[in-house]
Amino acid sequence: MGTSSIKKLGVISILLCFFTLVKHAYADCNPSQCIEIEKWRVGIALGAGAKTNPLVGGDAIPLVIIPDIAYYGDNLYLDNAEIGYQWMQAPTSALDTFFSVNTEKAFFTFWHPSNVLGSSGNFLSNAIGPSNASPFDDRRVSIDEVKSRKWAIDAGVRWHKRSAHSQWRITAKTDATNVHHGHQLDIGYEHYWSLNEWQVSLASTLIWKSSKLVDYYYGIDQQDNVLRELYYDASAGWQPSLALSANKKINQQWQWLIRTSVTWLHSGMTHSPLVDKEYTSTVFIGLGYVFR
Amino acid sequence: MRVLLACLSMVLWNEVCAEELEFSWQIQPTVCVNQHVGAQCHFTLSVQVQNQRQQEYCVYVVTLSPQQLFCSSEALLQKDLTLTIDDNTSLLLKNVQGETFLQQPLSVKSTQRSTRFRVNNPWSLF
């Protein structure tokens, strides 16, 4: 792990420690975190934004339309790309098991939302910020040159610990579809504020990805039909992440939405010839409409 | 000056108290419990009104606007009311001039949970 990675981990760790000092209380279900039972929530957000793509030759993902679809029964739930069952729902804690779509493949996908919903990804990518070149610039391999990666479904278990204005989440996931054969662990803390009429949350997360997961998507081997000297075994590592989101209700249906996040990638991934950025970031500003 | 203010405040306090003491009531229960959230809630509540000066008054339930339930001028009235409400509301006691003397909040509770925490934040697909 490089010095910069240690610094990023340090920042996240300090934030996690700071947040834990905040006085905890009983968790109330505020409207932005909660959903009515046995009622579909269907929403659509329209705006401007993008998610950067760390891959060589990969376009940023324009965020022009963001759907929000969820249905919660007493225990079963569907929440966007995740379906699960909650085994425990205490006032301050919960335990879920779930299946969810692994999103690593999105960076490789031609039929990506960028090709369906939006305009040029390169323009948005440049607008978000410059690329951070890896130390292996001379060994770059474009995603167009390697074998296509597959989508995977992960099976996971998640534990929530909530207080009045915060939430801890620990999530462990493993490949349920024999695609990457890897695992992932997320340890996250989220804090909520009300700022005038805005509901604001800041989340810090440490994400660990196993070597099999990282190597399947970002490693290069004989299946990729590139020069042997470009082969790369990607390795496991921790990826710190920060996310800030804010929403302001205009009326029962409409709300303003602002979302921004950054995830710093670990060296076992960024040293891959397929990767030419050290982070991914997301920005979105728009209006959300919830059908009622 | 202090003595004058003290006297004035005592006089005003006595007047207010005197008006409030003209009416008093006991209402049981004040919470209606139903099974499903958002469903109409039926309950019977017992109202006992003490009206020392035997003035005419009326009792209202607040829906979109106050709806009159009954009027009386009896010194002591005991009455059972059957109400159907679908949200938190209030009972009001008003005199004939329409001044509100007493107010009792009524609430609706459900045995069924209405909401759950989402496991993920809204709009977090990407």
For the biggest β-sheet of chain A, the strand order reads 2-4-5-6-7-8-9-10-11-12-13-14
Annotated CATH topology of chain A = Lipocalin
Mean pLDDT of chain B: 81
The structure class of chain B reads alpha+beta
The dominant shape of chain A is globular
Query: How much helix is in the residues of chain B?
Result: 10-25%
Question: Approximately what portion of the residues of chain A adopt beta-strand conformation?
Answer: 35-45%
Overall geometry of chain B comes to: elongated
What is the level 1 CATH name of chain A? Mainly Beta
Category from helices, strands and their pairing of chain A: mainly beta
User: What kind of sheet is the major sheet of chain A?
Assistant: 12 strands, antiparallel, barrel
Number of strands of chain B: 9
How many H/I helical runs of chain B?
1
Reported by name, the CATH topology of chain B is: Immunoglobulin-like
Describe this structure in words.
The complex is a heterodimer of chains A (292) and B (126). Chain A is mainly beta and 292 residues long. Chain A has five helices and 14 strands. In chain A, 14% of the residues lie in helices and 45% in strands. The model of chain A is unreliable at 18-26 and 113-136 (pLDDT under 50). Chain B has 126 residues and is α+β, with helices and mostly antiparallel strands. Chain B has a single domain (2-110), classed as Immunoglobulin-like, CATH 2.60.40. In chain B, the strands form two sheets. In chain B, strands 2-8-7-4-5 form a five-stranded mixed β-sheet, with no helix packed on it. The longest helix of chain B has 21 residues, at 2-22. Chain B is elongated, with a radius of gyration of 21 Å. In chain B, 13% of the residues are buried. At the A-B interface, strand 1, strand 2, strand 4, strand 6 and strand 7 of A face strand 9 of B. Strand 1 of chain A pairs antiparallel with strand 9 (115-117) of chain B.
